[in-house]
Specification:
The complex is a heterotrimer. By secondary structure, chain A is mainly alpha-helical. Chain A has a single domain, classed as Cytochrome c oxidase, subunit III, four-helix bundle (Four Helix Bundle (Hemerythrin (Met), subunit A), Up-down Bundle), CATH 1.20.120. Chain A contains six helices and no strands. By secondary structure, chain B is mainly α. Helices cover about 65% and strands about 0% of the residues of chain B. Chain B has a two-stranded antiparallel sheet with strand order 1-2. The two termini of chain B are about 50 Å apart. Chain C folds into two domains: about 80 residues; about 170 residues, Cupredoxins -  blue copper proteins (Immunoglobulin-like, Sandwich). Chain C has eight helices and 13 strands. In chain C, helix 2 packs antiparallel against helix 3. The longest helix of chain C is centred in the N-terminal third of the chain and has 34 residues. Classes of the chains: A mainly alpha, B mainly alpha, C alpha+beta. Chains in contact: A-B, A-C, B-C. Chains A and C meet through loops of A and loops of C. Bound molecules: heme O, protoporphyrin IX containing FE and copper (II) ion (CU). The site of protoporphyrin IX containing FE has 24 residues of chain B, from helix 3, helix 4, helix 14 and helix 16. Chain B: It is a multi-pass membrane protein. Chain B: GO terms for molecular function: cytochrome bo3 ubiquinol oxidase activity; cytochrome-c oxidase activity; heme binding; metal ion binding. Chain B: Belongs to the heme-copper respiratory oxidase family. Chain B: It comes from Acidithiobacillus thiooxidans ATCC 19377.
Chain lengths: ~210, ~700, ~325
């Protein structure tokens, strides 16, 4: 058998693309962004692995362990804030379907405010720890704890900037192919951060609290 | 919370101080003067010929995937040269500093490099060669070839493509500046815990290492996303997965590795940075840190990385062999499966880089077996290449010679790799120059494939062939150099010589070191031959012009469009009927059928944002290295601000009308006909290097 | 392990390896340390190397010949072989192409696993299976510093810096740790490598029947002094060993944690000096390990060995042992 057991008749074959098909901009963009999020997910997977290695008793080296300072309800409030933010974003995107600009902007604003609540809670928590002398220099275990949670917080921070930018773009430009594409990718980003937060909450906060 | 720094720090300049500039160093000071003179000469020449606007408009702001690819390749070749000089310096130190009675100069006890400097040389050599020579060269080829092979007008995200290039350029600039400002890491290209901690590496070397690698990782991730999306979304009509050219498959498998493995490196580096900048205890020996965690994280990336660089090289070989065997690639489907298998298994073997770290025998033997499994798909590839030649009609031109050389090196590297994969053998040769010889055999497979590809695809990009005589001369000199350097190195491995010795304690090794030094001389000659090759080819370019199908026996889609490739790649996108579309059209005599009419096409605009972003990431990396916090903040804010501004501006692109296209196409066909008529008897005008994409578009951008 | 064909293989291989050396000048001493093992561990390593090279060499060698043959036969214009422009698939060949490597990897895996257990540094069956019940093995605690080796003999309450002396016909068990950075312990003719890491303990073992002097190496880069961080290993008769122990036990120096603290400061051992310590604080090894785990380090001065000649002068002025 050869790969050239020609199935196509060269005399009748279509040689050039006559239909002038063009590539779908939004789906190409979404795919690329999905690939980026894949690598972002790997980033967190690696951090979780590092955290797993550094969360044994001896990793805290006699210093503070999460069990001593984690307040599950406080962090649960953060969880609720982030989830509501994602929900608000979802309502906004629903408004997009009806080409409802103000609905979208309201949803985005709500998502922004709730995200800020999340971040403020996080910063308060961290400065509280700092005031107790617990920093990432305390021990290997604390380094892993701090870096994992704060890398996630940094993602949230940049997500918030992005939400602001998108509110401004929708206000000035309306629903163009570009802005809609970005709204879709931003939604993917925001969802992924919420999903990752669930893992952070369960494996770092709750599990750390219990053990 | 910030760590105590050994040495001074000021808010304005961070750790930077005059004493960090090695103006008294007998090697670096003259080099610095030479670099400055060279830079002034280049700037002067460009100004003299008034080429600044051309450079800015046609190259620095371009989003054309071919020009970006060419620039990737130029960066790669420059860094390959730098890495070669480092190799030469390592060899010269080792041939000189043998035994307690050897002499020393420039403040060193033996040889001419102190341990501190020697460490920087091989660390920079390893990092540069793998990440700033081989990787950009391969990414450059993927950039140029993949979109054309899938029948697209550009990459999926042209702007992102430019961004990737300029971030890579920033990384190259950062490692180059470490020569003259401060020092580079001196603990090897992969560093180790805890030697990279502040207590053991108090200088800025490790910081340069962190940010250079971090930038490379960023650039490669962006490039990987782009190539994957291009392959998935931008294929021409009719190009099903089963008809994808083999190099595209190779790029696909490689970039799947890149996308999934680079994050591990980025995290490893970020954690090292947390240790060094914030006083964290990820990899310290004390305070609950875990130094083996670093080793694992690094090699979880590091091993897939070597397959990330070898797979595109395999793809290149799979393109060159069929063309010069005048036969389709043997076993296309198994070839694809093998690439995917290598990519998959590459994830399961990282521990073979530290069998000696004391893991239990169950762990060690599991990873040993997993490592050897890679030999199966690789073997399939070797056999398939062999059977591609079987019943072929082989032309041994220079490109083919490089590919065959790569094949033999792969056999040697594979044999020795399989030795290293067995713990009982590994314990004896780990960390010895035997390992160094193993991975040079393998990494030279890449270099061979790259030089083969330079020869093979050069006419496609620039419209004329490179000179055969000098290309062959270079090949033979290079191969002689390879044999003279790496055969003795294998032997020294069996003598127990360990790697990274800046002083060689055993005088019995001297004869072998001498032979290696001779090999370096031969290598240097081959570098000269390469320069002559470029000069001669450019001088005679008019004689060596080619048409669309430069080799007359090529098979895949890039050979359907003109050489040099117009900036829009295809005036009308081809419809794909067969796996080897061009060979199939040629076989049926329809390779000259032109499209009937031309329609308007949409192209992206040039942009200066990408290069400015590259500049800013360089500044950021530099500021982070020297801990100039205000500059970090300023450059970071500038980067974010620029991103926001660009996202507001967007890029509407511009339209080339069908009529315009038709005019440009007809001119191209006329030129091709002229080449065919002239039978190389008299030179044909038009299209020279630099003006590579000979078709000047009427600039409707901006 | 005692199969005859193993010995036969070894002899053949050694002869083959020696051939180029004899041609080069016929010195009596084989510089190819890996082919000239003098200890059980190193011997076992060599055996697996031979097996692997035979299997892989056969396949790779034949493949190379095949390629060369195709290159000769199908060269364009020579008309030696038939040209078939479309032939690109054959199920039979596919079977061989996948089958041969799979079978070979199967074979090699068997040897790989077996070898890993035989020379497992923590419990090398090649040594432990043949140990007499009262074989009184010698124990050595190895502490690597920047850049010296301290060998503690806990059974004799003594220590030696930068030289290892061991009795023949006696199993030796090592415990290893480092006070500074990671490096690797390696004596090419006696035993393969094992990493030496700060705050951690690894193990290794060796057994040799050949008296003689062998080179020991720090085989992982540990900083500026690594190239000089070598040590001689002397395998001696049991009687000589006892005598040597007596000699060391009469030496003036003694090693406590306090003196170790000074000993462990960065020191480039250019002149290969040896120091004997007639007494050692009990539990020094564990003490060093716990201190390191608590965060103790011996930092390197900035820009160390920027100028090596100056640095050596400075080091000499400090009069350190
Ligand atoms: C492009 C680069 C590249 C490639 C392709 C490979 C390929 C392989 N490598 Fe290598 N390596 C590479 C680059 C490196 N390796 C290293 C180190 C390294 C080590 C650790 C050594 C040590 O530090 O102790 C091992 C065990 C291997 C094993 C292998 C194996 C089994 C393969 C296999 O993929 C080879 C497969 C090929 C074969 C087998 C030949 C063809 C097959 C035929 C003909 C069929 C028959 C085959 C069988 C029967 C199996 N490598 C290092 C060290 C880094 C450092 O320490 O600085 C580098 C850079
Ligand atoms: C062109 C000829 C080359 C020569 C002569 C050369 C020479 C050397 C030498 C002498 C060493 C140090 C060996 C030792 O540690 O004792 C070395 C290390 C290394 N080389 Fe090369 N090399 C060459 C090309 C390459 C290429 C093309 C690559 C990669 C693509 C490469 C990658 C490396 C790496 C990764 C190291 C290890 C550095 C380390 O120990 O940290 N080399 N090379
Ligand atoms: Cu590997």
């Amino acid at each position: 058998m050869s790969s050239h057991a020609s199935t196509v008749d060269p005399k009748k074959a279509e040689l050039w693309d006559t239909h002038h098909h063009s590539h779908d901009v939004i789906s190409t963009r979404t795919l690329g962004y999905f690939l980026y999020l894949l690598s972002d997910g790997m980033l967190f997977a690696t951090l979780f692995a590092a955290y797993g290695v550094l969360s044994y008793q001896h990793s805290y080296f006699g210093g503070p362990t999460p069990a001593e300072f984690v307040k599950p309800w406080y962090t649960f409030a953060q969880t609720i804030a982030l989830f509501l933010s994602v929900l608000a974003y979802g309502f906004g995107m629903n408004a997009l379907k009806h080409k409802n600009k103000s609905g979208l902007i309201n949803g985005m604003l709500a998502a922004f405010v709730l995200g800020v609540v999340f971040l403020v809670l996080d910063i308060r928590d961290m400065s509280h720890l700092y005031s107790m002398g617990i920093t990432l220099a305390s021990s290997g275990g604390m380094s892993a704890f701090m870096v994992l949670t704060q890398v996630h917080a940094t993602h949230i921070f940049f997500g918030l900037i992005w939400i602001l930018v998108m509110i401004a773009q929708v206000m000035t430009k309306g629903f163009t192919e570009e802005t809609v594409g970005r709204l879709l990718t931003l939604r993917m980003f925001w969802h992924l951060q919420a999903v990752i937060w669930v893992f952070v909450y369960i494996f770092v906060y709750l599990w750390g609290y219990i053990s | 919370m910030l760590v105590d720094l050994p040495g001074g720090w000021s808010p304005l300049l961070g750790r930077l101080a005059w004493s960090q500039i090695p103006y008294a160093n007998p090697i670096l000071a003259p080099l610095f003067v030479a670099v400055v003179i060279g830079a002034i000469a280049i700037i002067g020449l460009i100004t003299y010929y008034g080429k600044w606007t051309y450079l800015w408009k046609e190259w620095l702001t371009t989003v054309d995937h071919k020009k970006l690819g060419v620039m990737y390749i130029i960066i790669g070749l420059v860094m390959l040269f730098r890495g070669f000089i480092d190799g030469l310096m390592i060899r010269t130190q080792q041939v000189w500093a043998v035994g307690p009675h050897s002499s020393g100069v420039f403040g060193s006890l033996h040889g001419y490099l102190t341990p501190f400097h020697f460490g920087q040389v091989y660390s920079a050599h390893g990092l540069i060669m793998i990440l700033l020579a081989a990787t950009p060269l391969l990414v450059g080829f993927m950039n140029i070839i993949v979109p054309i092979q899938v029948g697209a007008r550009d990459m999926a995200y042209p702007y992102l493509n430019a961004l990737g290039l300029w971030i890579t350029a920033a990384a190259a600039a950062l490692i180059m500046i470490s020569l003259f400002v401060g020092d580079f890491a001196h603990n090897g290209w992969f560093e180790y815990a805890p030697i990279f901690e502040m207590q053991y590496s108090p200088g800025v070397g490790v910081d340069y290492w962190i940010w250079t690698l971090q930038l490379v990782a960023l650039g490669t991730t962006l490039g990987g996303i782009n190539i994957l999306a291009t392959i998935i979304k931008m294929r021409a009509p009719g190009m099903t997965w089963g008809k994808l050219p083999i190099f595209v498959w190779a790029s696909l498998s490689a970039n799947v590795i890149a996308l999934t493995s680079f994050p591990a490196l980025q995290i490893a580096l970020a954690l090292v940075a947390a240790d060094r900048y914030l006083g964290a205890h990820f990899f310290t020996a004390g305070m609950g840190g875990n130094l083996m965690l670093y080793t694992n994280l690094f090699w979880i990336w590091g091993h897939p990385e070597v397959y990330f660089v070898i797979l595109p090289a395999f793809g290149m070989m799979s393109e060159i062999f069929p063309t010069f065997s005048e036969k389709p690639l043997f076993g296309y489907i198994t070839m694809v499966l093998a690439s995917m298998a290598i990519a998959g298994v590459s994830w399961l073997v990282w521990l073979h880089h530290f069998f000696t770290m004391g893991a239990g025998p169950y762990v060690n033997s599991a990873f040993s077996v997993a490592t050897m499994l890679v030999g199966i798909p690789t073997g399939v590839k070797v056999f398939n290449w062999a059977f591609t030649m079987y019943r072929g009609r082989l032309t041994f031109n220079a490109a083919m010679l490089w590919a065959i050389g790569a094949l033999f090196l792969l056999l040697i590297g594979g044999l020795t790799g399989m030795m290293l994969a067995i713990p009982a053998i590994n314990y004896m040769v780990h960390n010895s120059v035997f390992v160094v010889a193993h991975f040079h055999s393998m990494l030279l497979v890449i270099v061979y494939a790259i030089f083969g590809s330079v020869l093979y695809w050069f006419p496609k990009v620039f419209g004329f062939k490179l000179d055969e005589f000098w290309a062959k001369t270079m090949f033979w000199l290079f191969s002689a150099g390879t044999a003279l350097v790496f055969v003795p190195m294998y032997m020294l491995g069996f003598m127990g010589m360990t790697r990274r010795l800046e002083y060689v304690f055993n005088t019995g090794w001297q004869p072998y070191l001498d032979v290696m030094e001779l090999g370096i001389v031969v290598y240097t000659l081959s570098v000269l031959a390469f320069f002559i090759l470029l000069y001669v080819s450019v001088r005679d370019h008019a004689k060596n012009r080619v048409g669309a199908d430069a080799w007359g026996t090529s098979r895949s889609l890039e050979w359907l469009t003109h050489s040099p490739v117009p900036f829009y790649n295809f005036a009308v996108l081809p419809h794909i009927n067969e796996r080897d579309e061009v060979a199939w059209r040629r076989q049926h005599g329809i390779d000259n059928v032109r499209p009937e009419h031309y329609e308007d096409i949409h192209m992206p605009n040039n942009t200066g944002v990408a290069i400015i972003m590259g500049g800013l990431t360089f500044v950021l990396g530099f500021a982070l290295t020297w801990r100039i916090w205000w500059l970090c903040l300023v450059s970071l804010l500038a980067i974010i601000g620029l991103m926001i501004i660009r996202s507001f501006r967007g890029d509407p692109g511009y339209i080339i009308t069908g009529a315009e296209l038709q005019r440009m196409e007809e001119e191209a066909y006329r030129r091709e006909a002229q080449i065919a008529d002239s039978h190389h008897s008299h030179p044909v005008s038009g299209g020279v290097v630099g003006n590579a994409m000979a078709y000047q578009r009427n600039d409707s951008s901006k | 392990m005692d199969l005859n064909w193993r010995n036969w293989l070894k002899k053949g291989w050694r002869a083959a390896a020696l051939a180029p050396v004899l041609l080069l000048g016929g010195c009596a001493h084989n510089p190819f340390w890996i082919f000239d093992p003098k200890g059980v561990m190193a011997k076992t390593d060599l055996f697996y190397m031979i097996v692997d090279v035979l299997i892989m060499g056969a396949i790779v060698g034949l493949t190379a010949l095949l390629v060369v043959w195709f290159m000769w036969r199908y060269q364009k214009g020579k008309n030696r072989g038939m040209y078939d422009p479309h032939w690109s698939h054959s199920n039979t060949i596919e079977v061989f192409v996948w089958g041969i490597p799979i079978i070979a990897v199967g074979f090699l895996s068997y040897f790989a696993v077996r070898g890993t257990f035989e020379i497992n540094p923590y419990n090398p069956t090649v040594i432990t299976h043949h140990m007499k019940p009262n074989g009184d093995p010698v124990e050595v605690d190895v502490i690597a510093t920047d850049w010296q080796w301290l060998f503690v003999y806990p059974q004799y309450h003594m220590a030696v810096a930068n030289e290892l002396v061991l009795p023949v016909h006696t199993p030796v068990f090592f415990r290893l740790t480092s006070s500074a950075v990671t490096t690797t312990f390696f004596i090419p003719q006696l035993v393969g490598m094992i990493d030496v890491m700060p705050g951690m303990r690894t193990k290794n073992a060796l057994l040799s029947d050949h008296a003689g002097e062998y080179q020991g190496i720090a085989s992982d880069y540990a900083g500026a002094g690594t190239s000089w961080m070598t040590f001689k290993t002397k395998m001696v008769d049991k009687a000589d060993f006892a005598q040597w122990v007596q000699k060391v036990q009469q030496a003036p120096g003694s090693m406590t944690y306090a003196s170790f603290n000074r000993f462990a400061e960065p020191f480039i051992n250019v002149n290969h000096h040896l120091v004997y310590f007639s007494s050692v604080e009990p539990g020094l090894f564990d003490h060093v390990m716990t201190e390191v785990m608590r965060g103790k380090t011996w930092p390197i001065p900035p820009m160390m060995t920027e100028n090596m000649v100056d640095y050596m002068k400075k080091q000499a002025a400090e009069h350190r042992d």
